[in-house]
Specification:
Layout lengths: L6 E3 L6 E3 L9 E2 L2 E2 L1 E2 L5 H4 L10 E3 L2 E3 L11 E8 L5 E5 L7 E3 L7 E7 L3 E4 L6
Antiparallel strand pairs: 1-2, 1-5, 3-4, 6-7, 7-10, 8-9, 8-11, 11-12
Bound molecules: fe (ii) ion.
Length: about 130
């Protein structure tokens, strides 16, 4: 069973997928079940990391201030998600990009998440996802 907006990764080829519509089955890639990517939060379960990974909803913008954007370590994408999960915005980044996304989702109703190529998925508000 999957849930809307869960992310899954294939540990063989590196594919990452997002569930748009949930179903009873489990995603499979390269002949094996994919692994659900559990969201983390800087303050709850990654205090040992020096750089911050949780994106910051800030008015009409989602941004990140303190994470490397280098060829071997960078934020691959950021998402803004409404509380009811019916509005989702995604922006992809390249190394050296500034991590900032303009969003039209109600700023009082937003959860943001980011995906680091090394450290995985982080959320701004763990209760909402
Ligand atoms: Fe990272």
């Amino acid at each position: 069973m999957t849930n809307k907006l869960e992310l899954y990764k294939c540990n063989i080829c590196g594919n990452v997928i997002e569930v748009l519509i949930s179903g009873d089955g489990h995603p499979v890639c390269c002949g094996e079940e994919m692994v659900r990517i559990e969201p983390k939060n800087d303050s709850l379960n990654s205090p040992d990391l020096t750089e911050k990974h949780s994106p910051i909803p800030d008015g009409d913008v989602v941004r990140m201030d303190n994470h490397p954007m280098e060829d071997n370590h960078y934020i691959m994408f950021v998402q803004a998600i409404s509380k009811d999960k019916n509005e989702i915005m995604t922006k992809y980044f390249y190394p050296s990009d500034k991590v900032e996304m303009l969003t039209c989702i109600d700023k009082n109703d937003i959860t943001a998440r980011s995906y680091c190529n090394i450290h995985g998925l982080f959320v701004s508000n763990k209760e909402n996802l």
